[in-house]
Structure formats: C-alpha cells, structure tokens
Amino acid sequence: MRLLNQYLKHHNTPDDLIDLIDSLMLSCKEIAIKLREGALAGVLGTSEGINVQGETQKKLDIISNDILKAVLLDNPTVAGIASEEEDYPVPGNPDGKYLVTFDPLDGSSNIDVNVSVGTIFSILERPKHLDGGTEAAFMQSGRNQIASGYVLYGPCAVLVLTTGQGVNMFTLSHGGDFILTEENVKIPEHTQEFGINMSNQRFWEPEMKNYVSDLLQGEEGPLGKRYNMRWVASMVAEVHRILTRGGIFLYPWDNRDPSKPGKLRLMYEGNPMSYLIEQAGGLSTTCYGHIMDVQPEKIHQRVSVGLGSKAEVETMMQYHAKD
Ligand code: P6P
C-alpha cells in the first residue's frame, strides 16, 4: 500500500512540487468534508453571487474556491492562482516557482441532487520575467503543464494525477490519506460509449450532427457497432469514466453564442483534462486539433472538446477534416 507522498518521492518528483500537491490535497480533503456534510452544514443551494462566466454561484463553489485560495496563497512555492470563480489571477509569493489554475467545483449544478462533482487543477511554472499575478504569466499552452489532475468527490474521493510520467489514481482513506489504487492507467483504444448533451443537437455544426447521427445508427450505420450513451453534466465524472473504461466525451462548438469557441474553459478544464487523457494513451482535441496546442489569449478562454479513446476520437476528427 503506497501513500501519495511515498509514490511521488519514489518517482523523483521535485520536493517543491510534492509540497504544492500536498497543499492541493489538504484543500480537497476540506472540500470533501464540506460536501459530505451537505444540507447538515447548510452549504447546499445557490449564493447571491454571479461569477465572471455569468453563472450563478453555488454556496459550495465559493466555499471551495476560498479554501483553495487560502491554502495555495499560503504556500511559498505559489506565485499566482487563477480560478473559474475569480475574475482575474491572484498574486502569491513574487518569488514562487509555480502557477496554479483550478476549477474549484466542476459540475456544481449537480450538488443539490447529490451527483458527483470534482476539483480540477493544472500546474505551470512561472515565467522568470513575469509576475505570477498577471494574466500574461498564465498565457502558456497545455504542453507547458508540469502536472495536472482532479479529485472526484463520488461514492469515494479519488485523486487522479499526472506529473508527466503516466496517470495514477489515489483513493482517500477514512483516515485521510490518499492511497495508490490504480497505477499507470491506460484508456482502451476503442469504445462503444459516447457522452454529449443531445439537447444541443440543433445548434451543432453539420460535421458533429453527422458524426452523432452515425453513432446513433449503431450496427446498421457506417460505424458498424452499437453505442451506449452517458451524460452526467459533470466533466470530471465523464473523464473519470473514460480513464476507467474508455469512451468519448464531446462538448462541441454550437451556434447559441457563435463568438464563443465552446462552453468549457481551456485553462482549468480543457488543458488539465487533456494532459491526463493523453498521458493515459487517449486523444484530447477541439474536434479539429489538439487542445494542448491551443495558445491561450485570455485566462477564462473557452474551448470545444472531443476527448477519449484514441481510435474513436480519430474517427470523430475524420468527420471534421477540412478537405
Ligand atoms: P450542460 C459543468 O457546469 C460543466 O462545466 C462540465 O463539467 C459539464 O461537462 C458541462 O458543463 C455540462 O454542461 O450544458 O450539459 O449543463
């Protein structure tokens, strides 16, 4: 049985990165406790707040964000943080080595109906010539990530982490330790399961309409096999399912707001999840190219997403190939 810190040390993870991951896990343990208490602690329901995304904030969105902000800004390795729930990056230690982006509670619309949610995080190095509190310091593609991961608060709390040496899963014990439970996770190359919000079908590009139509035709259609569908409305739960048994997750561009490239956010959803997916042998794309190749221009920039089992994502991309 190996503890998270033992595993990281054994795999030559730098001490300051282990220290930062410890701070992230301390925060996530506190968030897990708040979630477990739920109605008993009066933390369910919405706040009066509206975030920079224009979304009504759940009480637990704010509580989770405040926990992560306080713990991370108290860690001297952190030069700055950027959160889905913060309008702008927040400076930390000016000499700090790392930048952290996070979605404190992804899928929070599910909280009041007791469905899985999670904390997603991404770790970058601060460019030496830039201050960690500036948006410019964060404008790095996903290829620059030092580490990324999430803690899924489901029937059990599970940390899924990559530091660039594959993907590992650590389950939170009753005693408060993250214990290695899955090592070197690999996504099955093929799948018969897809995830997409079908209610948006009329807004999609023709390419996505054609692909999903062929999925729905099953064995009678050109793809020649029966597909099943899942939609949890919590990206962290969808990605965990894909890392565990394969699949394809889709949140494509749609014409409801043509100015937005997609719904999901690049810096603290798209990039961290893409690093995990590709470290586990899958593919993570905008439906046209790798998400981690996108050069960010804004901290809350959005992106369209098609990720999962390599062969299935490649098939989906053939529908989107420009002649
Ligand atoms: P919809 C949660 O709000 C989220 O950002 C992702 O976690 C999830 O996959 C998606 O939005 C769900 O979106 O439009 O189906 O509610």
From TrEMBL:
Class in the EC hierarchy, top level: hydrolase
Signal sequence residues: none
Predominant location: cytoplasm
Pfam family for this entry, one: FBPase_C
GO terms classed as biological process: fructose 1,6-bisphosphate metabolic process; fructose 6-phosphate metabolic process; fructose metabolic process; gluconeogenesis; sucrose biosynthetic process
Xref: InterPro entries: FBPase_C_dom, FBPase_class-1, FBPase_N, FBPtase
Cofactors, names only: Mg(2+)
Binding-site residues for Mg(2+) 2, renumbered to this chain: 103, 106, 269
GO cellular component: cytosol
Domain Fructose-1-6-bisphosphatase class 1 C-terminal span(s) in chain numbering: 187-320
Note on how the cofactor is bound: Binds 2 magnesium ions per subunit.
Pathways involved: Carbohydrate biosynthesis
Domain Fructose-1-6-bisphosphatase class I N-terminal: 4-183
Family: Belongs to the FBPase class 1 family.
Subunit note: Homotetramer.
Protein name: Fructose-1,6-bisphosphatase class 1
Source species of the chain: Amphritea opalescens
Taxonomic placement: Bacteria, Pseudomonadati, Pseudomonadota, Gammaproteobacteria, Oceanospirillales
This protein's encoding gene: fbp
